[in-house]
Amino acid sequence: MLALMALMTLAFIAFAVFVTAAVLLKVVLRVALFPFKLALVALKLLVLPFVAIAVFVKVVVLFSVGVTFVALLIPIFIVLALFAAPFLLVAAVAH
Questions:
Q1: pLDDT of res. 61
Q2: Residue 51's closest CA among 39, 59, 35?
């Protein structure tokens, strides 16, 4: 029984040492990689205007395509209305 308790104590201590080493490694890596995160933030800030311009151009192109599509639909609707008007008048008179 004493050997079993000693084995469990040793396992608990080994687990505690392992967890402590893992946390220490995580902290060391976080501190060591912090300058790279700052450099990435600087790079992100340098790229931000180009991304903003790309998004603006994309929105302008989509808006232009939509306006062109609507401009092409208007004459089609007018021609359809010209062909449908006599039938609508006959249907209104017959009712």
A1: 98
A2: 59
- 2-38 burial by CB neighbour count: b if 16+ within 10 A, else e? eeeeeeeeeeeeeeeeeeeeeeeeeeeeeeeeeeeee
pLDDT in tens, 19-40: 999 999 999 988 888 888 888 8
Q: Which residue bears the tokens 């062909």?
A: 83
Rounded to two decimals, the pTM is 0.51
Tell me the one-letter amino acid at 51: V
Q: What is the DSSP string of 54-72?
A: HHHHHHHHHHHHHHHHHHH
